[in-house]
Amino acid sequence: MSVKHGLLALLERGPMYGYQLRAAFDSATGGTWPLNIGQVYTTLARLERDDLVAALPENEGQRPYEITAHGRDELKKWFTTPVQRGDRPRDEVAIKLALAITTPGVDVAKVVMTQRTSTMRTLQEYTRLKAQPGDLPWLLVLDAMIFQAEAELRWLDHCEASLVRYEPQAVPVPADVEVPR
Amino acid sequence: MTVLEVRDVHRVHGTGATSVTALDGISLTVGAGELVAVMGPSGSGKSTLLNLAGGLDSPTRGQVLVDGTSLQSLSRKQLAAWRRKRIGYVFQDLNLIASLTAAENVALPLDLDGVRGSRRQAEEALTEVGLDGYADRFPDEMSGGQQQRVAVARALIGERRLVLADEPTGALDSRTGEAVLRLLRSKVDDGAAAVLVTHDARHAAWADRVVFLRDGVVADVSERDQPEELLSTP
Description:
The structure holds two protein chains of two kinds.
Chain A: H1 3-11, H2 18-28, H3 37-49, E1 53-55, E2 65-67, H4 69-80, H5 92-102, H6 108-130, H7 136-165
Antiparallel strand pairs in A: 1-2
Chain B: E1 2-13, E2 20-31, E3 34-39, H1 46-53, E4 61-66, E5 69-70, H2 76-86, E6 87-91, H3 102-112, H4 118-128, H5 144-156, E7 162-166, H6 174-189, E8 193-197, H7 201-204, E9 209-214, E10 217-223, H8 227-232
Parallel strand pairs in B: 3-8, 3-9, 6-7, 7-8
Antiparallel strand pairs in B: 1-2, 1-4, 4-5, 9-10
Helix pairs in contact in B: 3-4, 3-5, 4-5, 5-6
């Protein structure tokens, strides 16, 4: 997801100025994705350049923005298009573990355990937040983070079990790399 | 204030060449108002630890203290009475007595000690777990989730200081399972100490501390941070 689509969705509720947008974004994501006001204004400037939002006349020193018809089309397209797995950032934990296994001298079991303890702690905190009352949109965002953390923990358990049976093989050096003598 | 203290406990099943070490020197303390989850693969010693904590099994070496009293120092009869008064259990297989109503099942530990007003306390405990009006139903007239809540009410009734739960959400759907954990959490927030054995990370996450067992020893412990710190992380 981009901040761009987040702001368009918020403006669909009605015109807002920068600080209102930032507050609404914070509230929708439960503060898990803090935006600074600079990001909000930079994004608004780009949205205005692309005719997705329009600036309204200033009111008491604040300039509200509204979504345009073109912006509404873009928003509709965003809501009806699935997010592709490939669009998301690479999983650093998976890459780190793969490299740990093939790097001499690394205690892989310890890498797994350290990650698991950290992810478990995060899951405990999400759960504590969930125990408090909240609106459905925020609770669903929280649930998404809870399920992702749980999935990572299950995968780490799987890694640990696989490592017990693992017999390392010599890692081949790519053929076209010349090793200096 | 410490309610449960497990001191360097070993538990070996069998003797000689065929002996199996289930616990190999575990120490753990659980205070009032604290929920500790125990996780680990099958055979890591989770259930053995819970059985020792509840006096259902004895350590080969080491000590288990509940409210400062060593369970090994009690006679079998004293231990049974001690367990009834102070320790509540919730197991995956609910152990409800089919010929008793929900209220009779819940009141049973109090009745065995001749406590007066047990019926009223049982009804209060059932209300606490959201089963108001179910007091006179038999287990087979209730859903799995409702039966599990009866088991939780039985574990929480009276002045129980220590609650031990072994996969208490085992057969339940995720919503009902979560309701059981909320109950356990709220009992703990009211001052009880609890140990929860589970293989489910989402359930363990309700705990203040998560202990990972591997081959009968504590491999790692996860304690939660303050949520403010978590949310301020960019």
